[in-house]
Amino acid sequence: MKPAFTDPVLDAQAGFRALMEAMARPGCVQQVISPPDLPEGLEPAAAAAILTLADAETPLWTDAGEEARGWIAFHTGAPLVAEPASAMLLLNTGATMPELATLQAGEDETPQDGATLIRQVAGLSEGSGWRLTGPGIAHEHRLCATGMPADFPAQWRANAARFPCGVDVVLCAGAALAALPRSVALREGG
Amino acid sequence: MTDPGYNFAYLDEATKRMIRRALLKAIAIPGHQIPFGAREMPLPYGWGTGGIQVTASILGPDDTLKVIDQGADDTTNAVSIRRFFHRVAGVQVTTRTAEATIIQTRHRIPERPLTEGQVMVFQVPMPEPLFKLEPRLAETRRLHALGDYSLAQVKLYEDIARQGEGGSAYSHPVMVNHRYLMSPSPIPGFDNPKLHMSPALMLFGAGREKKIYAVPPYTSVVSLDFDDHPFRPVRAPHACAACGSTTSYLDEIVTDDRGGRMFVCSDTDHCAENQMARKAAE
Amino acid sequence: MYVAVKGGDAAIAAAHAWLAEQRRGDKALPELSAAQLQEQLGLAVDRVMAEGSCHDRELAALAIKQARGDLIEAAFLLRAYRNTLTRFPAAEPVDTGAMRVRRRISATYKDMPGGQVLGPTFDYTHRLLDFALLAEGEAPLAPEEAEATGAPMPRVSEILAQEGLMRREPPGDGAPPPDLTRDPLPFPAPRALRLQSLARGDEGFLLGLGYSTQRGYGNAHPFVAELRMGEVEVLITPPELGFPISLGEITVTECQMVNQFAGRADTPPQFTRGYGLSLGHSERKAMAMALVDRALMARDLGEEVTAPAQDQEFVLLHADNVEATGFVEHLKLPHHVDFQSELEKLRSIRARWEAARDGVPEAAE
């Protein structure tokens, strides 16, 4: 079994601060500390996000390979679920992304039950791409994520329309991550 | 030096994870109160246990922590909480607003404008802005879901009709991101405008009531009011006797038993900075 | 020149030193040991364990000593300590039917299988100060050891249930019990969580509420079907073993209170049960808890909710003395920032009021 965080307390704290900054400033790319040696198919930022957030109380869905699944189950104790709709946390490493509309979105009185989708993408950069506005953004942030489904902006519009219910997304590439909380409005860049 | 008898920042890792998940959802749904499994802390409920749990869950060794109560760093409760974190997390502490990365506060927002690198952690006694109008949580939860804030608007209208002006002197409710009515914690109305489009992230923790909520940076925060009776923050109409400031929030000090009064800044760091600047100019 | 009050650090250190000195009291007298408290103030220890939600007689005694006998402060110390402990799996439900009984009484039957066992009780004592205890008293003589009959002591509620007169509790769904200390109370709260909350609730608060149900606030006509106190075994089933193992015995007090229920179209008239269970020997607590538990069932039974004791949010959110004492006592913290705002506000409203009284047109702002 490959190891988890070198320092389980302080690395998780650093991972959380990166996630918190990412969620508070949508589209701003953050860097994380990662375990030194990761299972096949898992990249540093996504691995750090899972180690930071998952435990026995978070039903987790993932399409990652066997080694990664065993690694997650062993280090976090999260129950792995077969259906994306039953998950509180989703780790999406493949090309196909679960449809946002099919995931848990919470209820009007409990919108916090909406799922968090952590998706590995090929690249993340600021300054071009989507135009993001909303809470956490003074004027506009630009975020370019390569390897997202073509209909993602349409899916996101439908997700944002359900506010305060909805799904929050964390995009990861290498050791970088950026977040799209459900409160953010996304337009295709030009 | 961190006390070796405790985990870093006192809380165990499972508790921190639970609070951290709640914080991320709180940021994603600005102004919405999220129930969390608040733990008993070694400090009493009502003395900052919510704020302490939030701070303990975000704090890291690179942070510099400032703790204020009533705007001051040297009030006993602020001293006690600062000592707690120094003991269990060994972090650097400061009284300088400009140097702090995390500012835990009870009842004030510093005068000095906050920056993007800073996180405010508010201690919240009563997170529910409607509690005086509807004490039942099952009912207020429904009203928040519906976005039905007519109770609060009627109360404000009645205050204006009766007193000629509306609004609470402190804890005056705010609309966050045009969706949720939120208690800003018992800060004076004077501080409410500082929440609007602040570059800093604002986190709110209520330990006894077991709720967490947040206002992300650059988020619209509007004090509840009417167009023809706009919310009017008040301060004592005097200059600070120590630094001369005419813009800061003032504490009223009773100087004798014959009605003598003087006014000084409630924000001790701000006052000290002003005094230094004045000395330097002389 | 005005100088703001400073020196919080030094003041706190000095106050704590003074507190320690006061706690110790006159050094000419021998210091109390936690063991003495455990043995000789056993009911205080039990109350602190119950409200501190932690069964450890030695630590409860230490908390009482450290808190100078302030039992709420002691419960708080124990809670804060409990909160740092590692959790093992949930224990199996304790079987109070198999209790090694030291006291067992029923008010609903003159006699029943197993009989009435008075046990160590203040009941029927004359509340006259015993001045002999002021002197260094001799150890009292132990009573003649009662002959253990060994007869089984079935729970009185079972006797009523056999006749079909006792409302059957809905069976558990096998899910692990919800845990009040991990998740905040949802409302409406299921009975398991209500009972957890009452079990750690303040004895005085529950006593007053229980009492109010007897005085017409909640329409209760309760009978003590059974009150029993003694030792029960705590079992856990480690997943790797698959069978229960014993962790040892603890003392508990259990009260089953019966109340008539008028019935509904779909439910025959029958008795319902209010349930109280407390760590240690705490009869008043267990009885008050049983009364309040029954009052809180009003909603489930379709009874009209009219009294404070029937109001879940009112009862459960105000029963915890650690929460309550913290928030009440936080009023000692400085509030001058808010008070200043309140002062300015009152001055402003007052000026308007005086202007209106004197017929002066309101000044333009």
- Point out poorly predicted stretches of chain A: none
Tell me the total number of β-strands of chain A.
Answer: 9
User: What is the CATH superfamily of chain A?
Assistant: Bacterial phosphonate metabolism protein PhnH
pLDDT averaged residue by residue of chain C: 89
Distance between the termini of chain A: 46 Å
β-strand number of chain C: 4
| N-to-C SSE string of chain A, H for helix and E for strand | HEHEHEEEEHEEE
Whole-number average pLDDT of chain A?
Answer: 96
Percentage of residues in strands of chain C: 5-15%
Enumerate how many helices of chain C there are, as a single number.
13
CATH topology of chain A: Rossmann fold
Number of DSSP helical runs of chain A: 4
The helicity of chain C comes to 25-40%
The largest beta-sheet of chain A arranges its strands as 1-8-7-4-3-2
How would you portray this structure in words?
The complex is a heterotrimer of chains A (190), B (282) and C (365). With 190 residues, chain A is of the alpha/beta class. Chain A has one domain: Rossmann fold. Chain A contains four helices and nine strands; from the N terminus they run H-E-H-E-H-E-E-E-E-H-E-E-E. Chain B has two domains: 211 residues, Bacterial phosphonate metabolism protein PhnH (Rossmann fold, 3-Layer(aba) Sandwich), CATH 3.40.50; 48 residues, no CATH class. The N and C termini of chain B lie far apart (41 Å). Among the domains of chain C are: 58 residues; 185 residues, no CATH class. Chain C contains 13 helices and four strands. Chain C has a four-stranded antiparallel sheet with strand order 1-2-3-4. In chain C, helix 2 packs across helix 4, helix 3 packs across helix 4 and helix 8 packs across helix 9. The model of chain C has no long low-confidence stretch (mean pLDDT 89). Classes of the chains: A alpha/beta (190), B alpha/beta (282), C alpha+beta (365). Chains in contact: A-B, B-C. At the A-B interface, helix 1 of A face helix 1 and helix 4 of B.
